[in-house]
Specification:
alpha/beta, single chain, 15 strands
């Protein structure tokens, strides 16, 4: 399908608009759009006269959804950790691997040794895998440099991906990911002399859309993360946080006090933390790939998120250690199978709620005024996107109103 006209009208499709219950599903739908965005969406019999003359594109009864959004990834990094995968299968826990000098720190060595071009070349196949599943926006974190030079190099590499592929990249500074080996035991000094200066430098270069941290016993305390967030807020940058993945340190509640866009992982989150997130409007980003890979046994509190009205996003957490997952469709299935999320919650989690987790307006729904970023699928019903395993039903993407 080729759409080169400036205006177009999609017809003969099912549209999962995600604007109401039951996927906001419109049978026998039509969608009018321009490069500037969606003008109208509704039943084909109700096409307004103002758009009826647009060039028509018959979608053959296929399903249309908003293009997908992967709101938590680490796709830019050097090396891989297949050896640690073997270690864990022989009995070592994720925490034991990290305390032995593996984990994040081992990827730091490989990332520091890689040039910007090498980081891009390694990341592109991962990005391509996501694009092939209908993804239009990918969040990419730093955090494997842990020195000023490499943190900036990672962010520059991430930004350049958008020049090489038809995808939007949102960059997140994650200098507070771990303390590098050369500063072991000097976490506070690392925060003050490396992490915060790196954040300031990255912001000055225009490389940062948001600021993240890893709040955990093997990483940083809430008080240490708060020092980074104070600087982020002073710079006018939104924050988000890896929290309660392995234990409950109160990180999500602390992030909520800063009005965080999201708190991510959250397996050990308690109800007080859920309430804090609800009060702040902080999105819960669910990461089943990490839960699956490290064989975690405590699931995130999905029922509490529902009860307190916390929106749930869903992402791959693509990283070389705890979630080497390059399939957002598989992440949807995992969330349903492992955590009992519904297929509708899963689809909302990779569209509407993922957009909110990144602070992106006009994304993730099919409504007038939204960006015309869509995915067209060879399925009859939206639930099939989370149901099938190892099957990619994408027919094509539409980005900015063009296929």
């Amino acid at each position: 399908m080729t759409m080169r006209q400036h205006n177009s009208l999609l017809t003969n499709c099912r549209a999962a608009t995600l604007t109401g219950p039951d996927y906001g599903l419109i049978e026998d739908a039509a969608i009018a759009m321009t490069p500037e965005g969606i003008l109208w969406a509704g039943h084909r019999q109700d096409i307004p006269a103002a758009v009826a003359a647009f060039p028509h594109h018959d979608l053959g009864g296929r399903l249309v959804t908003p293009a997908l959004i992967d709101c938590h990834t680490h796709v830019v990094h050097g090396g891989n950790r297949a050896g640690e995968f073997e270690m864990r299968l022989k009995g070592a826990t994720y925490e034991e691997v990290a305390r032995a000098g593996g984990g994040i720190v081992s990827t730091v060595r490989a990332t520091r040794a890689a040039s910007e071009e090498e980081l891009i070349a390694a990341a592109l196949p991962r990005v391509d895998a996501l694009i092939a599943e209908g993804v239009s926006v990918i969040e990419v974190k730093s955090g494997y440099g842990l020195d000023i030079e490499t943190e900036l190099r990672m962010l520059r590499a991430a930004r350049r991906i958008a020049d090489l592929r038809p995808v939007e990249i949102r960059t997140t500074f994650l200098g507070a990911h771990a303390t590098p080996a050369e500063m072991k035991g000097a976490d506070d000094a690392y925060i003050d002399t490396v992490c915060i200066p790196a954040l300031r430098a990255a912001h000055a270069e225009g490389l940062v859309d948001a600021v993240d941290g890893f709040c955990e016993g093997i990483a940083f305390s809430p008080a240490q993360i708060a020092r980074v967030f104070d600087v982020a807020c002073a710079l006018g940058l939104p924050v988000k946080l890896h929290a309660e993945q392995l234990s409950n340190l109160g990180g999500a509640a602390m992030a909520a006090r800063y009005g965080a866009l999201s708190a991510d992982h959250l397996e050990y989150l308690d109800e007080a933390g859920v309430r804090a997130m609800a009060d702040a409007g902080t999105v819960a980003v669910i990461l089943p790939g990490a839960f699956y890979t490290i064989r975690e046994t405590v699931a995130p509190p999905i029922a509490l998120f529902r009860a307190h009205g916390v929106q749930m996003a869903l992402a791959t957490d693509m990283n070389p250690g705890s979630s080497p997952l390059c399939s957002l469709l598989l992440a949807m299935n995992m969330a349903c199978t492992l955590f009992r999320m519904t297929p509708e919650e899963a689809l909302m989690g990779v569209t509407r709620h993922a957009a909110r987790a990144l602070g992106l307006a006009g994304r993730g729904t099919i409504v007038p005024g939204a960006r015309a970023d869509l995915a067209v699928w060879n399925v009859d019903h939206p639930a099939e996107l989370a149901y099938r395993i190892g099957f990619n039903p994408l027919h094509h993407r539409i980005i900015g109103g063009r296929a």
